[in-house]
Design a protein that fits this description.
The chain is of the alpha/beta class. Among the domains are: 240 residues, 2-Layer Sandwich (BirA Bifunctional Protein, domain 2), CATH 3.30.930; 33 residues; 74 residues, no CATH class; 84 residues; 186 residues, P-loop containing nucleotide triphosphate hydrolases (Rossmann fold), CATH 3.40.50; 202 residues, Rossmann fold, CATH 3.40.50; 99 residues, no CATH class. The protein contains 68 helices and 35 strands. The strands form ten sheets. Strands 17-16-18-19-15-20 form a six-stranded parallel beta sheet, sandwiched between helices. Strands 21, 22, 32, 33, 34 and 35 form a six-stranded parallel beta sheet that branches. It starts with a strand and ends in a 15-residue tail after the last helix.
Length: 1678
């Protein structure tokens, strides 16, 4: 193996146990009851130790690991010493007098104190995939009342397929030296040699860990993890091992990195594993180099490269002198055991009909050990292991094998080989860097520094070996530095659009928005090659035959062959007549490319053109030659002949060459035809085109970039198609089932709907990987026996090996193949009768009378097996024979019964049985699905049985049969593209991604959060005090608090005033999470009421100036406006005390308790509960019972006593209520402490204010919820609900109202929409000092916006009352602050720049620039949409001719395009302009509705007559839209559905028929609410008063002056005073507090007593109703 550091995920839960059960025990399970410590001591294996820079943070650095510590950290995500921390916390905080709830709270706090960030969830398999999808689709169907669209189904399936099963607890990194070093350590008899090997290993391991500390120790933060921040270091544990599961020598160390890491901000989060995974290969190569350098320095050994015959990858550098047989002896041991284990698994399944259990797999693994050899001893010390190893190898290879191994270490006095070199090679950094770039560029078009680092490590240790680690490190750094310089590399950076402030940078100066070491590079050579290919595809160089000639030639071809379809004729015509140097043809699998090529060659020959066919492999070239009936060659061989062959000079100059090279000659007019061109590398294609151009020939490329691509730097075909165009075949001929053909085309482009065909036709089988190998084989065998041509394929060589082994077993059992055989490179054996495939070209071994040679991919049958391991074989097509040498057989031969996907591309069979695993790519799946004419069955591995190697038993969901469904696996496969992009396309994509809203918006949001968080933290500490503030700011929910504050501030709220209002809703300290409670309150307040005027602190100088101005305007004495008094904090900014919830607040009573009260009352009165709960007095009775129970009284006794006192028989509920309340009042509970429960408070309020008749009528209407919603909003806005409801009822008669609840809701909503500040004329209890203080702070707020107080009050004329002056001032404040908040050019879901950032100009400028980038992107999206008119925009109308309307229409399109850009919506369907619906509660739901509303507005604007867009800003419209939303919510589902259909039909917005019911997010959009209002009005479901508001009289059309309003206010005060005197028997009282024992006179009685309409003044009074006194009550707690 090449990478000697491997990495595996470790899942939370019990995933860690393999470390304590087996790894810590040397891969041998301990005896029951034996601790790890005893096991280590007894058996000599070292205990695990804590490592990493993060270990000291936990006070564990260098200490021994315990099982309990492993459980806490890797099992639960807690501090390793969590048990001690929890015990200490409980000891310090538990008191003897605590109740159960308090104890639970302390225990929860103790666990939280011991948890590092978020606790790992316990592993529980998700519900089956089909059930999860069905549930979500049911939600969509319920919300939409329609069948989910195909786009929605695909979206849900895709999202569910990507859900994480279990938390990742860590990453197991296994460091192991090369096998020769392990053999030397195991067998050398000298202790100092063994110690040197181990010391070199440990030094290399520690150095590799330090490399990871420097480059992988990062974490992510932000809503989408968009910011990568510094940390305080990795936390790791290390366990040393001496042997493998097979019992062979295998010195290695498991270094397990915890997935918990402490950020630089002190918070524990997850490790950002992106960097760790990206640098795995580079770290492995670093370890290899460091080990080699360390061991060379210690022992003087040398290393040499040996080809890795098993993997055919990078050669392995082994110790010179260690015999190969010593290495292969132990390597083959593991291969044999694993093969036996797989065989036992298959046999178990065949015998029992199901997979073995987890316990049984352990038994089978032990059995495999015993069956192949003596087996691993259960308890061996290191010395016992060494004795066993020595015995086994000397038995197999003779007693001198140990001395031969030891001879690899030179004598101590000798000079190391690296030092004996007489003249060391000169170090030429540019040359080495160029070599690294060349090596990397041959593999990929784009690379990172880690790709370069891996190659630089290999190159440095092979070309310039050294005994100095520092020298080697300096060389590698120099090579990499030179390689990424502009001389060799071109950076593919996302453009730097903003210069982040220090707070958004890591310690090294990099932006947190840029992943460390993620910069991508390409080379000038690759970019130039791509540019030349595109240029060649655009450059005409010749004139071809005329189309008429081509048509006639094609007719001649069809006369002797099958008819061509239109696409094939078009492709042949284009290839023949196209004058360009390069022409491209694309064809999906099964589209008849071979037939088209045959026709093309025929026509070209008719036109006198010579065609030179090329393929991308020797085997493919042989197939191509057979298909075209003319010689074909391998592309690589063709290029080699022109660039390095013996006759390259002659070929390039056109001179004569030998007959053996005649096929490589290119003459002017010739055409080079490249088949499967998608598998050709970019540099090779470029070389070919240059040669063709030089020789006067042209090139025709045929392939499909959506199938398997080149293993070299690729992406050229896709680039050429995009830049120069291509002729594409569209008709599929291969498939007998046309529906299946259509499904493959969907799969080709990643459309998951293509999977539906295979599931609907039972073409998908699923189960464990082992079971699927069996099932695929059984299907293949059945078809083989039936005489069908069939194919069984898999992605990896491991699966192909398993499938081939299974086939060989049956053939051996059937007597078709000999049981014994020669050992092949994959662990299988092959003997006489077996079918094999050769895997390496060898032109020296010829067959078929010299007409063919040994090629990679050739199929053979074994005729004879020789004793030396060579094989006599016969070609399975042309029947030619040859003998394969033993060395070739061992390294380059495999069984043929199964095929890799790569080998299968281009083949056609009757049936196919592909094995699909979770690492398959879309292109590979597409190739697998398109090989068969008739039937393809997918065998989908959903999980794996426990592997033999315990190092791979880490990922619990991977081995859980209930974790994944076949659909999930296939969905994930389709989302994984494996084809390379060209460097040119990668650059373009990077540039587009950099400016997309998917990038800009998350960064803007995170920057806003980061830069405003300190301000909000300080604000909370200043307002709430250190104790409560500490609780809130250290809670994870603090992010929700800051997000709510930012959103509110963008909406015009003053954070100080908002926080103050939130504290009046109850004591935050009693909440389980004060931060969560505060966040909820902040959001609720801002959602239910508009932002009030800001209040800023004035200085004494300010208030002195204000006092003179106010005294002049009010004509009041100046001494009444004390400047010092005005500097005190107004009530609106005061924080509520801890017990802010007043005793008379409406209590929360559970529904079950209310039901119990109603049943008890009904039993007492001998009536039904329905009659009790329907009675207007029920809320008051429930309030009395709740007060009684709250104070420890027996409610049954209370009811019995009250019933005995009740006197009325006509209204028993009223009598019982009055008696109960009177009884409690006499017992010390006054009536104002008997408030109706929260759930019934509006019902009680209506009865009190409206009277029983009106209240009952309103409550029985189906729009009653609209009135309760309006009252709730009024209360949250600071109003007294009783006062506001009374004023709404009195403003106009209720007689004749079509819906009482709607009329009242409309009037209240109209008032709230006006958002008028408090009119103190209606608040006689408000102190003048408070009015003056609030006025002064309001004037300061105005001046802080740049307007002087004198200017703001210049419109005030005449003598003005102080309350009216305050009202005017607050209106001015609102106007100025709203003008300064928000940006009209940003979608509503994107946060504007908070005003609080103005305190730091750098931060404010950065965020402003960020918002400007987003606004610019919107403009670009709008222009693109208007210019290109994508399909999704087709239903949004055409651009209006009026410039104003056109701008409005384009802005609406920009909002829809912005949503699609940010949320990466790719579905281009006009039925759903905003894409698939997002369910409520999921990210993006509100933004989805805003985009949908914008689509509706765009269509309306396009269809509207010329004129300005109707305003939605006036108060009547706002109130009407709010009432519309409330009424719509209260309607039955059928009515809601009908209204939605009507809106969709009327507006032509067909997409509305595909969205759900209108939820809060939808109804909040004015354009949606406007349409619904119109439909409700037509259906007479909206009150006439709202749809036809009273027109103002002529004299009311002008706004009254302040003096007129003052006089009207005084009249209203006097009338109200008279009403109070009359109501209270002449005693003036406050209307806000009803007198115990006396009910206020209901409105209906007052209206009956005074039928004459009130004058206009009270109506004006209602339009600006009062607020509750916040200094006395504050907002109510709901």
């Amino acid at each position: 193996m090449v990478a000697l550091m491997t990495i595996h995920k470790l899942t939370a839960g019990n995933g860690y146990t393999y470390l304590t059960r087996q790894v810590a025990g040397g891969d041998v399970q301990r005896q029951r009851g034996q601790s790890a410590e005893e096991y280590y001591t007894q058996k000599g294996n070292p205990a695990g130790v804590w490592l990493g820079r993060g270990a000291p943070l936990l006070e564990l650095d260098g200490t021994t690991v315990t099982e309990q510590q492993m459980k806490h950290l890797f099992g639960l995500g807690q501090h390793p010493d969590a048990q001690r921390i929890i015990a200490e916390h409980l000891a310090a905080n538990v008191r003897a007098d605590m109740d159960d709830e308090q104890l639970k709270a302390v225990q929860a706090a103790a666990i939280k104190a011991a948890t590092l960030g978020r606790k790992y969830p316990e592993y529980e398999p998700l519900d089956p995939f089909a059930e999860r999808v069905e549930r979500r689709l049911a939600v969509i169907e319920k919300e939409t009342r329609r069948t989910p669209s195909s786009a929605e189904i695909k979206k849900v399936q895709h999202e569910e397929s990507r859900r994480q099963r279990a938390a990742v607890a860590g990453f197991d990194l296994v460091f192991a030296p090369v096998k020769s070093a392990a053999v030397l350590w195991a067998l050398d008899e000298r202790p100092e040699v063994r110690a040197a090997v181990r010391a070199a290993h440990e030094a290399a391991r520690d150095a590799a860990l330090e490399l990871l500390e420097e480059n992988a120790a990062y974490t992510r933060t932000g809503s989408t993890g968009q910011a990568q921040i510094d940390t305080k270091g990795l936390v790791a544990v290390a366990f040393d091992h001496f042997d493998s599961r097979a019992g062979d020598p295998n010195l290695h160390t498991h270094v397990v990195l915890a997935n918990k890491i402490q950020g630089i901000d002190g918070k524990w989060r997850s490790l950002d594993a992106r960097g760790l995974l990206a640098m795995t290969v580079a770290t492995s190569e670093f370890y290899n180099s460091r080990f080699e350098t360390e061991l060379t320095a210690r022992l003087g050994v040398t290393f040499e490269a040996r080809e890795d015959s098993a993997t055919k990858r990078q050669p392995v550098r082994e110790i010179v002198g260690v015999p190969v047989e010593a290495i292969t002896h132990f390597s083959s041991r593991r291969t044999e055991i694993e093969a036996r284990y797989e065989q036992l698994l298959r046999e178990y399944r065949r015998e029992h009909g199901h997979d073995p259990s987890r316990g049984m797999t352990h038994q089978l693994a032990r059995q495999a050990n015993l069956d192949t050899r003596e087996g691993k001893k259960a308890a061996r010390s290191l010395e016992e292991m060494r004795a066993d190893w020595t015995h086994t190898i000397t038995t197999a290879h003779g007693p001198d094998i140990v001395q031969r191994v030891m001879a690899a270490v030179p004598a101590p006095e000798s000079t190391p080989a690296t030092a004996r070199q007489e003249e060391p090679k000169p170090v030429e950094i540019p040359t080495l860097a160029a070599a690294v770039i060349t090596a990397v560029g041959e593999e990929r078009a784009v690379w990172t520094v880690w790709n370069l680092r891996a190659h630089a490590e290999r190159l440095a240790r092979s070309e310039h070996p050294t005994t100095s680690t520092a020298e080697h490190q300096q060389l590698v750094e120099a090579i990499v530095t030179e390689a990424i310089s502009p001389t060799h590399s071109v950076r593919i950076d996302t453009p730097t659009l903003l210069d982040e402030p220090e707070e958004l940078r890591r310690a090294n100066g990099d932006s947190v928005f840029v992943q460390h070491a993620s910069t991508r590079y390409t080379s000038t050579a690759i970019l130039d090659a791509e540019r030349r290919l595109v240029t060649a595809a655009l450059t005409p160089v010749t004139e071809g035959p005329n189309p008429a000639f081509v048509g006639a030639a094609l007719d001649g071809f069809e006369a002797r062959n099958r008819a061509l379809d239109e696409g094939q004729r078009a492709l042949v015509t284009a290839f023949i007549t196209d004058p360009r140097l390069v022409s491209l043809g694309l064809g999906p699998a099964g589209s008849g490319k071979t037939t088209a090529m045959q026709a093309y060659v025929h026509v070209a020959n008719q036109a006198g053109q010579r065609v030179v066919p090329l393929a991308t492999s020797a085997a493919s070239a042989a197939v191509l030659a057979k298909d075209l009936k003319q010689p074909a060659e391998n592309l690589h061989k063709f290029l080699w002949e022109y660039t390095g062959g013996k006759y390259m000079g002659e070929l390039l100059s056109g001179r004569n060459v030998p007959e053996s090279r005649a096929g490589f000659v290119l003459n002017p007019g010739d055409v080079v035809l490249v088949d499967e061109a998608g598998m050709a590398g970019t540099l090779n294609l470029d070389s070919l085109v240059k040669i063709a151009d030089q020789r006067g020939a042209t090139v025709r490329l045929l392939g499909d970039y959506r199938q398997l691509s080149s293993v070299e730097a690729g992406g050229a075909l896709r680039l050429i198609a995009a830049e120069a165009g291509a002729v594409e075949l569209t008709t599929l001929h291969r498939f007998s089932n046309k529906t299946e053909a259509a499904a493959t085309l969907k799969i080709r482009t990643g459309d998951t709907a293509g999977l539906d065909f295979y599931f609907a036709n039972q073409r998908v089988v699923s189960g464990s990987r082992t079971a699927m190998v069996e099932a695929a084989y059984d299907g293949w065998k059945t078809d083989m026996l039936a005489g069908r041509t069939t194919l069984i394929s898999a992605r990896t060589g491991t699966d192909v090996t398993a499938l081939s082994a299974r086939a060989r077993e049956d053939r051996v059992a059937a007597g078709q193949v000999e049981a014994d055989g020669v050992l092949l490179r994959d662990g299988n054996r092959a003997g006489r009768g077996d079918w094999i495939v050769t895997r390496k070209n060898d032109r020296k071994l010829t067959t078929n009378r010299g007409r063919d040679f040994l090629k990679n991919g050739d199929a053979w049958e074994i005729l004879k097996r020789h004793e030396d391991g060579s094989l006599k074989v016969r070609h399975m097509e042309h029947r030619g024979r040859l003998t394969l040498p033993a060395e070739y057989v061992a390294a380059n031969v495999q069984l043929l019964y199964a095929s890799t996907i790569t080998r299968s591309q281009g083949g056609t069979v009757d049936t196919a049985h592909p094995l699909v695993t979770d690492d398959t790519t879309r292109e590979e799946l597409y190739v697998q699905l398109t090989r068969a004419r008739h039937t393809t069955t997918l065998y989908t591995a959903t999980h794996e049985l426990l592997p033999f190697d315990t190092d791979e038993q880490l990922d619990q969901p991977k081995n859980d049969p209930n974790s994944f469904a076949a659909r999930e696996v296939l969905e994930r496969v389709l989302s994984r593209e494996g084809a390379q992009l060209s460097a040119t396309e990668t650059i373009r994509n990077a540039q587009e991604d950099a400016v997309s809203l998917a990038t800009l918006v998350p960064r803007h949001q995170h920057a806003t959060e980061t830069l405003t968080a300190p301000y909000y933290h300080q604000l909370i500490h200043r307002l709430l005090g250190p104790a409560l503030a500490e609780q809130i700011t250290t809670d994870d929910a603090m992010t929700a608090v800051t997000r709510a504050l930012r959103t509110a501030e963008a909406g015009g709220w003053q954070p100080e005033r908002l926080i103050a209002a939130a504290t009046w809703r109850g004591d935050l300290t009693t909440a389980d999470s004060p931060a969560q409670a505060l966040a909820w309150r902040l959001s609720t307040i801002t959602n239910e009421r508009p932002a009030p005027a800001h209040l800023n602190a004035p200085t004494t100088a300010d208030t002195t100036r204000y006092a003179a101005l106010v005294a002049q305007l009010t004509n009041l004495p100046a001494h009444r406006f004390d400047p010092e008094t005005a500097t005190a904090e107004p009530a609106a900014l005061r924080i509520a005390p801890a017990a802010a919830q007043a005793a008379d607040a409406h209590p929360h009573v559970p529904a079950d308790t209310l039901n119990h009260y109603a049943t008890a009352a009904a039993t007492t009165l001998n009536t039904t509960t329905d009659r009790v709960t329907a009675h207007p007095q029920w809320p008051h009775l429930a309030g009395a019972l709740a007060a009684a129970e709250r104070t420890g009284r027996d409610t049954t006794n209370l009811l019995t006593a009250a019933a005995s006192q009740a006197t009325s028989t006509s209204d028993p509920v009223t009598a019982l209520t009055r008696a109960a309340r009177t009884t409690l009042a006499a017992d010390g509970i006054p009536e104002h402490h008997q408030q109706a429960p929260e759930a019934l408070r509006h019902q009680a309020l209506a009865a009190t204010v409206l009277g029983d008749e009106h209240a009952t009528r309103a409550r029985n209407e189906n729009t009653w919820p609209a009135l309760t919603a309006a009252l709730r909003r009024a209360e949250n806005a600071g109003h007294e609900p009783a006062t506001l409801l009374r004023q709404a009822a009195e403003s106009r008669p209720l007689t004749g109202a079509d819906s009482l609840s709607q009329v009242l809701a409309w009037r209240i909503g109209r008032h709230l929409a006006a958002d008028a500040p408090v009119a103190a004329a209606q608040q006689s209890d408000r102190a003048e000092a408070e009015l003056w203080r609030t006025l002064a702070w309001s004037l300061k707020a105005i001046e802080n916006t740049g307007t002087t107080a004198e200017t703001a009050l210049s419109e005030v004329t005449g003598r003005t009352a102080l309350p009216e002056l305050l009202q005017h001032t607050q209106q001015q404040v609102l106007a100025h602050t709203r003008a300064a908040s928000g940006r009209a050019d940003l979608p509503a879901w994107i946060s504007a720049v908070p005003r609080s950032t103005t305190a730091n100009p750098l931060h404010h400028e950065y965020l402003t620039d960020s918002a400007t980038l987003i606004a610019n992107r919107l403009s670009v999206l709008a222009d693109r949409t208007v210019e290109n008119r994508p399909e999704w925009s087709r239903t949004l109308g055409e651009a209006p001719t009026d410039p104003t309307q056109r701008a409005q229409w384009q802005q609406h399109l920009a909002v829809v395009a912005a949503y699609r850009d940010q949320y990466r919506v790719t579905d281009d369907n006009a039925i759903q302009p905003a894409g698939p619906y997002i369910e409520e509660g999921r990210t993006g739901h509100d933004a989805y509705w805003q985009a949908t509303a914008a689509a509706l507005a765009a269509r309306r604007t396009a269809a509207a007559p010329v004129g300005p867009e109707s305003s939605t800003g006036n108060t009547d419209q706002q109130a009407r839209h709010q009432l519309t939303a409330d009424v719509y919510r209260a309607l039955p589902e059928a009515d809601q559905a009908e209204i939605l259909r009507t809106v969709a039909t009327r507006t032509g917005a067909t997409w509305l028929a595909n969205i759900p019911r209108l939820d809060d997010a939808a109804l909040a959009q004015p354009s949606v609410a406007e349409q619904v209002t119109a439909v409700l009005t037509e259906r007479r479901q909206l009150t006439a008063e709202a749809t036809q508001p009273e027109q103002p009289q002529a004299e009311e059309r002008r706004q009254p002056t302040l003096a007129e309003r003052r006089r009207a206010g005084r009249q209203a005060e006097r009338q109200a005073h008279r009403d109070q005197l009359q109501q209270r028997g002449g005693q003036p009282t406050r209307a806000a507090r009803p007198v115990p024992g006396r009910r206020p006179e209901p409105v209906e009685q007052r209206q009956a007593q005074a039928p004459v309409q009130r004058p206009a003044a009270p109506q004006q009074q209602f339009q600006q109703p009062p607020q509750a006194r916040q200094d006395q009550r504050g907002p109510r707690i709901r």
